[in-house]
Amino acid sequence: MTAASRTASLERSTSESQISLSVDLDGSGASDIDTGVPFLDHMLTAFARHSLTDLTVRATGDIHIDVHHTVEDTGILLGQAILAALGDKTGISRYGDALVPLDEALAQAVVDISGRPYLVHSGEPAGFEFHLIGGHYTGAMVRHFFEALVLNARLTVHLTLIEGRDPHHIAEAEFKAFARAFRQAKSPDPLVTGVPSTKGAL
């Protein structure tokens, strides 16, 4: 990361996946994503667009076994990149919330760039975790991805599905709600001097 910008470029390589990723938190929402998991590409593209975060991802993994490793490891690296790009968090709004519909689905996300990783994720219908979306991505991967991202970005996130029937709509509404809430939280607040915490650090 440079002093003049909120950017980060990272790589992660294990026996299960190899990933390179870059973020610009002050971008326009441009994305260039290829993880080998088409539905994850779709969700990351939506995240970039709706959070106004420029995002580039290249990933290869053992998707012939399962998409789990690639999805989780991408979440880990995205979280680490967000944490690095946020820097000392001077002048940020810190909090964000969003309520996002997609047809019959409705999701709410509340984000606190708190330095304390915590995810509360609720409301998905019974059986959602077993449903294949796009033939590659199970509903369970939504929570796996957000757990990895939240832990590594050190965010507090409450993600709630309020309504929803179609698994694609459910997942997309959740990603877009998170993106919109994160967009608010990372945005500079001209009224904030220093770090928005009574502790003086986040």
Task: Put the structure in a nutshell.
The protein is of the alpha+beta class and 202 residues long. The chain contains four helices and ten strands; from the N terminus they run E-E-E-H-E-H-E-E-E-E-E-H-E-H. A four-stranded mixed β-sheet has the order 1-2-4-3, covered by helices on one side. Strands 5-6-10-7 form a four-stranded mixed β-sheet. Strands 8-9 form a two-stranded antiparallel ribbon.
Q: Overview of this structure, please?
A:
- This protein is of the alpha+beta class and 202 residues long.
- 33% of the residues lie in helices and 30% in strands.
- It has 4 helices and 10 strands; from the N terminus they run E-E-E-H-E-H-E-E-E-E-E-H-E-H.
- It has helices spanning 38-51, 68-86, 140-153, 167-186, and strands at 7-13, 17-24, 31-34, 54-61, 95-102, 105-112, 118-122, 132-133, 137-138, 156-163.
- The strands form 3 sheets. A 4-stranded mixed beta sheet has the order 1-2-4-3, with helices on one face. The chain has a 4-stranded mixed beta sheet with strand order 5-6-10-7. A two-stranded antiparallel sheet has the order 8-9.
- Helix 1 (38-51) runs parallel beside helix 4 and helix 2 (68-86) packs parallel to helix 3.
Helix residue percentage: 25-40%
Largest sheet: 4 strands, mixed
Helix vs. strand class: alpha+beta
Regarding quaternary structure, what we see is: single chain
Q: Compute the gyration radius: what is it?
A: 16 Å
Q: What is the residue-mean pLDDT, rounded to a whole number?
A: 95
Question: What is the strand tally?
Answer: 10
Give the strand content. 25-35%
SSE string: EEEHEHEEEEEHEH
User: How far apart are the first and last residues' alpha carbons, in Å?
Assistant: 18 Å
Can you list the strand order of the major beta sheet?
A: 1-2-4-3
Stretches where pLDDT is under 50 for at least 5 consecutive residues are: none
Tell the overall outline.
Answer: globular
